[in-house]
Every structure is written in C-alpha cells, then in structure tokens.
Amino acid sequence: MRVLPSGSSALLVELDDLDAVLGFSAALRDRALPGVVDVVPAARTVLVVSDGSLADLRTALERLPWRPGRAGTGERVELPVRYDGEDLAAVAGLLGTDPDGVVAAHTGREWTVAFCGFAPGFGYCVPDAEPWDVPRLTTPRTRVPAGAVGLAGGFTGVYPSASPGGWQLIGRTDVAVFDLSRDPAALLRPGVRVRFVPC
Amino acid sequence: MLTVVAAGPLTTVQDRGRPGLGGIGVGRSGAADRAAAALANRLVGNDAAAAVLEATLGGLVVRAEADCFVVTTGARCPGSPVHAAPGLLRAGTTLALGTPVAGLRTYLAVRGGIAVPPVLGSRSTDVLSGLGPAPLRAGDVLPEGDPAGPLPGVDLAPVADPPAGEVTVRLLPGPRADWLTAAALGALPGPWTVTAESNRVGLRLAGPRLERAVDGELASEGLVRGAVQVPPSGAPVLFLADAPVTGGYPVAGYVADDDVDRCAQLRPGQALRFRC
C-alpha cells in the first residue's frame, strides 16, 4: 500500500488489487476516521477526502487495520433480470458457452459492488467466484437504455439512466438502481451484495 | 420571489454542493468560486448553506416580485449597484447584469436564499452529471427561503475584483507526477492559456505539450477539484466544481484548494501560471 498526495484536501491510497480495495474500503467504513468527508474506491485506489489535517490522516491510514477481502456492508439486493440483451449470444460465444450458460453463470453467483463510477449510481460489481473477462464493445453504443445489464472486463453493472455505453448487454431490469425520490438513491453502493434473478 | 427576465450565457443555482457522495458516483459540484458565493450569503445574512445564482459572463436579468435584499459578488458587472454592497431591490424593479470587465462568474444572493427543491441535499446544478435544477431560463420564477439571521449591517465588503491579466496559483503534488517526463515536469509551471473549451467541469489549458514517461493505461481513480490531469493529447485539464468523481488519466498536480476559486474566475484567453 502506498499513500500518494492529492492536493490540499485528499490522499490517494494505492493498493495491490481489487480485493485490497474492497478490504481497505470496508475498514474505512467501519471506523469513521476523524476529518474524513468522502471515500471514493476505484479499481486499484481509494481516494480519502478530508477537511482536517492531511498529516494526521496519513498516519491514521497507515495505522488502519484491514485485510483484503469482500467484507460487505451486510446489505443485499436482488435484481430481477430479463435475459434478452443484444449481446447475449456474442458473450456466450466469447465465454465458450450458450446463452443459457451465461444466464446460469450470471445468476448462480453472488456479486459485490466494488466501486461506483461512470455515472451516479453505476456500481461496478465483481463476482465471488470465477471471474470472467469480457471485452468492451469495440464501438460503444450511442444510447444504452436505463436498466440495461452489461458485462465488461471482470465486472457486471446496471445502467442507472440512458447514456452512451460500451458494455456488452445481456439483459435488463425494471428496478431503478438510481432513484432520486428514494433514500438511499443508489441501490448499488460499495459493499452491497447483489444477486441477479431471471424473470 | 425573483422572476428571470434573461438568463445570459449560463446561469445556474449553486450552493455548497453534495459532499460525501463520491462513493456512489456523485460529484460534489457547488459554486465554482466558493469564496465569492460564501461572501454573498454573508452579506445578506444567509446561512452558509443557502443557494445563490451563478451567472457566467453576466447577462442575467431578474425582476423582484416583492421587495428583497440582494447583493452580487465575484466578477463585477456593470449594471449592479449592489456589488459587494447589499441593497434593497424594490418590487417590480429589475437588476440587469452587464458583461463583466474582468472575471467570469458573478454570484447573486437574495436574502433567504434561492429555495428551489434540493436534489440529494443540494440545490446545485451539476453540468456533468445533470443532477440538480436545470440552468435558468427566461420566465423561471425563483422562490426565496426564510432568512437565517439578522442582516450583518455591512455596507460594503472590501474585496478585490478578479484580475484581468495573468494569474499565478500554487500547485501541490499530485499522485501521478511520475507519469510525466522530466521535461514535462519542467514545463508544468507554464504559462498556460485558458481555452474556450472550458466550463464548470474544468479549464482546458493550451501551452507546451506535456509528454508522458509512462505508456499504457491508468485504471480510473478518484479525484477532486483542483486536479491537473494530463490526457494523451498532452494538454492539461484543471478540474473545477463539476469535476468527475474518477478519472482515467494521470493527475500530475493539484491547485491548492483556496486557489481553485481564483481559477474559476479565469476567462478564455487569460494566462495562468503554476507555482510549484
């Protein structure tokens, strides 16, 4: 772990891999460090924003007990999905299976939201077992509808609103993963566990 | 109540933004020049969290539907008799902001604050994510909230106007300075020219091309306003209030947080230097 400078109000913690990011983020959630106003996990890093002393924050981060792993928040979300995505057959081909095999693999494992990015409420979910690697589309779509369920790299995710996008689409859900009229607005927050259920 | 007669090039509602939501992919947003917005609120006795109007390059015209106490701060616009000097806007009269001579963003605070419905705890318009109220349009009616405290009894706040010439700000270390060549690090202080492709998200800077020492892709990582990011083009971007939550290009340095406000007042064509 390396603690890198990020100006006058934040430090960037660089970690070895995503399991370390998940473990470190979970430790930060569990013990709210003084002065910390925001925690932004990403694929290899955790940005810690503070309104207090960065020297104190650096010491606290270096002393924080943590271990790599998928310690979730304890919250669980089930998302009903219609597996009729435009790229389902292509994804099956890439993974050496058929569409039913993709559905079985997607629904048969538990996912954990590792971090959010791209758009408000877009959670990057990682599987508990057997990660797969699905390339992004070479040409992103100019419009992906809200609720589209996609795969990219080792992640799965749900588009919270209509937007351009390069993930391979395997299905869609009617559940609004980001809804400003709901508290919390984002269903897929870091540390939440997700199961996809065919419907 | 204020009625928007004209919105100018871009006027948005802004407050202190949405801190603490980066984890769900929501950026902070808020007034681009926080100090100017905070001063405007103080001068009319508002709570620090009250929402104000942020006019870009003037052009905003509002009509008071009832007597109200107002002030402008930030870029000084011809036509504002209440610049840094709060005063009464009588019912039926208008306040018309001309084009500022220097600076870019003018804040109009009304006593009680702009009371449009908040989104995720803030009334700020985030032009990147689209969260918050839409930019103002002619005909919009803006309700006021309740005054938070007594009027401060200040006639005039003695603050300097944003400068028209070259501006120098402090640059602090960023996480990925080692992604730049030694020559690029030497060129980082500038001077840079603010280009017309700049907005609330960030300033796009023109100047020497910053060569990278490291090829390959950086996994996206968190950033906040003030970050100076170097995309493959070699032309840096200095992120402002509506910065993305994460970015996939190396951040070579950070403008000191207090100095970001001054950067938010820079106009296209203005020169910027970094003191490293």
Provide an overview of this structure.
Chain A has 199 residues and is an alpha+beta fold. Chain A contains 4 helices and 13 strands. In chain A, strand 6 (111-116) and strand 7 (123-127) form a beta hairpin. In chain A, helix 3 (88-95) crosses helix 4. Chain A starts with a strand and ends with a strand. Chain B has 2 domains: 2-142, no CATH class; 167-275, Beta Barrel (Cyclophilin). The longest helix of chain B is centred in the N-terminal third of the chain and has 10 residues, at 34-43. The A-B interface holds A 4-10, 12, 14, 37-47, 49, 115-122, 180, 184-186, 189-190 and B 19-26, 28, 119-120, 129, 131, 172-176, 219-224, 226-227, 245-246, 251, 253-258.
In short:
Chain A has helices at 18-30, 54-63, 88-95, 99-107, and strands at residues 2-5, 10-14, 36-41, 45-50, 76-81, 111-116, 123-127, 141-144, 148-152, 155-158, 163-165, 168-172, 193-198. By secondary structure, chain A is α+β, with helices and mostly antiparallel strands. Chain B is built from 3 helices and 18 strands.
Shape of chain A, please?
elongated
Radius of gyration of chain A: 18 Å
Helix content of chain A: 10-25%
Relative strand content of chain A: 25-35%
Distance between the termini of chain B: 46 Å
Please identify the structural class of chain B as seen in this structure: mainly beta
Could you name the CATH class of the largest domain in chain A?
A: Mainly Beta
Q: How many β-strands of chain A, per DSSP?
A: 13
Oligomer: heterodimer
Total of DSSP H or I helical runs spanning 4+ residues of chain B? 3
